[in-house]
Amino acid sequence: MKILAYRIVQLCAFMVFVAGSLNACSHTEEISASSQKSQTVQISGKTSILESSASTKGLTVSINGTPVVANAQGVYKASTKRNDIYQIRISGGGVFESVHTFSHAELSVKEDASIEIPNINLVEKIPGRTLMVFGGDAMMGRRYLEPKWGEDVLIKPETRLKDMKAILAGMRPYFEPADLSGINLETVLSTNELPESAPKNVVFYTHPDILEALKWMGADYVSLGNNHTYDYVAAGIDTTLAALERSGLGYSGAGRNQAEALQAYQTSINGTDIGILGFVGWKGRVTPNQVAEINKGGAAYGSTENIVSAVTKEAQEDELIVVQYHGSREYSEEPTEITEQRLKAAVDAGADLIIGHHPHVAHGLELYKDKLIAYSLGNFAFDQFFYETHGAYILKVWMDGEDFHRAEIVPIHIKDYKPVPATSDMRQYILKRIISLSAKRGTHVSLSGGHGVITAKNKAPVFKTVLREELVSGGDNVIELWQSVAQQYWPVEAKLENETGIQPVFGMDLFMRGDFESYSLYGTGERTFEAKNAKSELTETSRTGNYAMKIMPTNENEPARLAQKIFMRVLPSNSLSFTGYLRSEGNVHVTGYAQYRPRPMNRYKALEEAPLVKLGEAILEGDDWQNFKFDFIPPNKVQRTVRVLLEFRTFGKNIHPIFMDDLAVIAWEENSENKPTTSPNRRTHVFITVANDKPNNGKISIMYEKHKIDSLQQR
Fold first, then answer.
1. How far apart are CA 672 and CA 687, in angstroms?
2. What is the rounded CA–CA span in Å between residue 213 and residue 166?
3. Concatenated DSSP letters for 641-710?
């Protein structure tokens, strides 16, 4: 759901097609975004220094590079050119530099039409306090060099280093200010592919120029404790370690033998000695396996015995001990039991901070015995096209000596295989996921600016009950739930008044990018959709926010089609809906399809050969935005992977452009009708059916718990 940045929109009933037709939702309140591009906008915000009486008057604030004056109360105001993205940088005055990035579409508009930046809380620099920044899985081979489906090549031999820096450019403002930062380097380093590889399906190698790009970004360290360090066996270990030794970057987690692999990287910052260990959680099923042994190279094996032994050794050095661990199941929601046991054993043995990766998706965080465990950061710079892997985070951690002080969760979007700050729907998806999963572990996440925050005091957030009432019409209704970058709204209960129909069911959007607001941000390409017999482009003729998708058919004799390029991999529910909003200048016949990947068919073959399953059809009439909703249940005989498609046929020989916005693939909660739940949760939509004999007379009441943003509450 988009936050409207420059127009006030009356809430309308979100109605869907009934009996083969589409119901219209008036767009008379719409204002074209094109008239906004040349405008000057007023931006205001406030910042505070945590746990300090220091004045904010000496702070340097900039918006997209333009200096702004902050007063003694931390309030800043500026007049600036309207942009799709606003990056706020705050530094000076004895604080750690803070960077927050917002899209125009997600920021709220005050009564005076100015744009309001959410409150940003700063961390004071004091003796012995250290800022560390960590990212997840990184490589720059495979599809960066040879993309699928004729997409743009991101790394070319003649411009390799420049291209690699461009991939990381969006992260440089976040990594550069850190005292120590690092990522999980999930690849062999070699100028060319080596002749011998491990007998496994997927192997990676990346040109060593990636190390210079990482240093330019601000990285100081890489972990090699993962399942791709030994992809090119002994020769790959040799080329990787040689490249790292030439680069000056710190590393740990692998070696030419077990003793080397279990050694920590050691450094000293701000008077604090630091040791970082890296481990992979399993040996692998192939021969030779991926872990180091007495006379064999590889990654450090993260058995409980090895972890406890290595941490205990480092603890004798009176260091701040960081453990990097690569384990748990891919694309999962929670760490495995053995991962949790090992990481807590590391803390028991003396580890001060745990950084996890491998699942390629974000897991929750946990404060265990006052030490922070981040179970999985997700991807960082990686070429996976699965939609679920595109939402991740980088972690900023402030340590006072060996004691945890504070962490910030910075949502990132792996867009066009490049890590960039997440905004709009993607930010909300990531934050809701992390806040909800962390809450299950008794760890509370508040907000500062556009980031999640965990503090050592771990105080429960303050909630306030908010009621929203919405008028609905006869038939099916899909209602988007409140979202805001400044507040978290957790829908806990919905009631349909007067018993006019079926009681509400909540659901969660799995697609995370159907608002099109991030489609062209940061100069990145878009690899989400493919068009057939049509041209697709971004348009400012939007239903909400700033952008929508425009489809222009190119052949009057063939239907136009827009499809997801790849299957959605994770389906948490058996009850799904493909929904969104369409608009056209003429009548259009719309058909929705699902395509499933049969077992055990290769995914690429399935995209070409697996049959399309018709979900429904309807007629798009008039020039109003109209909602569609196609329901489906994946059959048991297929893998739980699906992609959705829309097919358009215009009437006669008149070809009309079709506009689409606010697309979603929703997993509906099972057995949730009219049952309250607790917050936080990850609900994004609610569905109801109103009796047709009650036209325009239904009312739904949605109860929210509002999560106050200001992390000052955790002081």
1. 11
2. 9
3. EEEEEEEEEESTT----EEEEEEEEEEEPTT-TT----SS----EEEEEE-TTSTT-EEEEEEEEEE--B
Q: From CA 526, how far away is CA 494, in angstroms rounded? A: 36
Name the residue with higher pLDDT: 4 or 242: 242
Q: How many residues does the chain have?
A: 715
Q: What's the Cα-to-Cα distance from 410 to each of 39, 261, 422, rounded to whole Å?
A: 29, 30, 8
DSSP 147: -
Report helix angle 304-315 to 337-349, nearest 10: 20
114 and 41 Cβ atoms separated by less than 8 Å: yes
Least confident of 364-368, 450-454, 458-462, 659-663: 458-462
Beta strands (DSSP E) in 510-637 are 529-532, 534-539, 548-553, 560-564, 576-584, 588-598, 612-620, 625-632
DSSP-assigned letters across all residues of 312-351 = HHHHTTT-EEEEEEE-S-TT-SS--HHHHHHHHHHHHHT-
Strand pairing partners for 592?
616, 646
Helix axes 233-247, 209-217, angle to 10 degrees: 40
User: Which residue intervals of 592-653 are DSSP H helices?
Assistant: 603-609
Q: Which element (helix H / strand E) includes 116? A: strand 115-116
pLDDT at 708: 61
pTM of the model: 0.92
CA 193 to centroid of chain Cα atoms:
31
Q: What is the three-class DSSP state of 57?
A: coil
Separation of alpha carbons 682 and 666, rounded Å: 11
689-708 average pLDDT score: 76
The two tokens of residue 25 are 């939702």
Query: What span, in angstroms and rounded, lies between the C-alpha atoms of 96 and 172?
Result: 15
Mean pLDDT of the 475-488 span: 86
With a cut of 50, say whether residue 600 has pLDDT above it.
yes
3-state secondary structure of 138: strand
Say which residue the tokens 């998806």 belong to: 429
Give the span between the Cα atoms of 378 and 360, in whole angstroms.
Answer: 4
- 600 cis-preceded (ω within 30 degrees of 0): yes
Q: What residues pair up with 126 in beta bridges, in sequence order?
A: none
Query: Which residue's entry shows tokens 């030779």?
Result: 288
Give me the mean pLDDT over the 679-704 stretch.
Answer: 81
State how far the alpha carbon of 69 is from the alpha carbons of 56, 107, 395, in Å: 10, 21, 29
The residue written with tokens 């990287």 in the block is: 265
Contact 254, 278 (CB under 8 A): yes
Nearest to 461 by CA among 118, 713, 715, 120: 713
Residue that the structure tokens 């040109």 belong to? 207
Domains contained in the chain, CATH given: 40-124 (2.60.40.4130), 130-157+171-205+220-400+407-420 (3.60.21), 464-714 (2.60.120.260)
- Residue identified by tokens 């219209």 is 24
Please tell me what DSSP assigns to residue 389: G
Q: Is the pLDDT of residue 526 over 70?
A: yes
Using CA atoms, how far apart are residues 594 and 361, in angstroms rounded to an integer? 24
Q: Which residues, in sequence order, are bridge partners of residue 45?
A: 76
Count CB atoms within 10 A of the CB of residue 332: 16
- Dist. CA 449–CA 410, nearest whole Å: 10
Q: Alpha-carbon distance 292 to 637, whole Å? A: 41
Q: What is the token pair recorded at 615?
A: 């979900």
Q: What is the pLDDT of residue 8?
A: 26
CA neighbor of 510 nearest in space, from 438, 425, 590, 431: 425
Q: 295: which 2 tokens?
A: 């006379």
Using the predicted structure, report yes or no on whether residue 2 has a pLDDT greater than 90. no
Average pLDDT, the chain: 89
